[in-house]
Amino acid sequence: MIDLRSDTVTRPSEAMRKAMYNAEVGDDVFKEDPTVNKLEQFAADLLGKEAALYVSSGVMGNQICLNVLTNPGDEVICERDAHIFNYESGSPAALSGVQLNPIDGKYGIITVEQVESFIRPSSAYYMPKTKVIEIENTHNRAGGTIWPIENIISMKGLAKKYNLYFHLDGARIWNASVAAGISVKEYASHFDSISCCLSKGLGAPVGSIIAGSKDFIKEAYRIRKAWGGGMRQAGIIAAAGLYALQNNIDRLKDDHEKAKFLAERINANPNLEIDMKAVQTNILLFHPKNISVEEGIKKSKDKGLLLSIGKVDLIRAIAHLDVSFDDVKKAADIIDEVFN
Q: Global pTM?
């Protein structure tokens, strides 16, 4: 079975498993796990931040960041297809008492002009208080699109103008960095907080990193504990994340090449529609013209290919390290067979 449902389905390589087996461990709640400490320091240095914190998932990472940056009754501005708005179980409201104010973007990108018109007047005591601008890079529901660095810099200027925090959901920031040729440190430098995933394209079995100032991470550490995220001998899984950061970033370009090959085959099929402008990293979204999304996914599965729903009328395919170029070629043949 060729699994293109997500890059979260990757499994640890033999070398990663050996790193996990050999990991030196301690009690991380006491900050005594040397492997977790090493991972957090390595990630902080990589991202150019004062400190970092290992958390169990991307959702936990984003939600801790939003919690630290806000107070109940505050508002976070984001793009309408943002992960925090669609895929995090209403957690901003449930966990932090904040509401999201989504803006329609183009390829997942919102403009300074759009955002500025959504910022609440500071004198309007009867409105929620705008506190955070959040963006997602790469953008999942837009098809793995990359935020241009000049747009990020402009948005940071807007946040500074209104004394707002700027948060990056960088679950796939590694993909953006490799594709755009911009270091993750440069991307991260423009944000007050960042959450980035270790268990997607990088291939670790679990975990994300959040990063920011020392004071920010000190409070994030407290919230992680309060939400049940304190892990004890976590070095066993942190070792996988450290291995992923040290070995699996540069190879993401291979996943982008696989995705581009598959996109071109999909684009050549008259029964499918795909926006090639959105094909920038490892995520593809395409629309079947003659059968439903559900039927297309079922027929593909029957022939040995797993796909997922991207949006209401779109099928999603994601390239990752556990599928080879040969697998992708076979996937393209199956797609042609199913949708012709």
A: 0.96
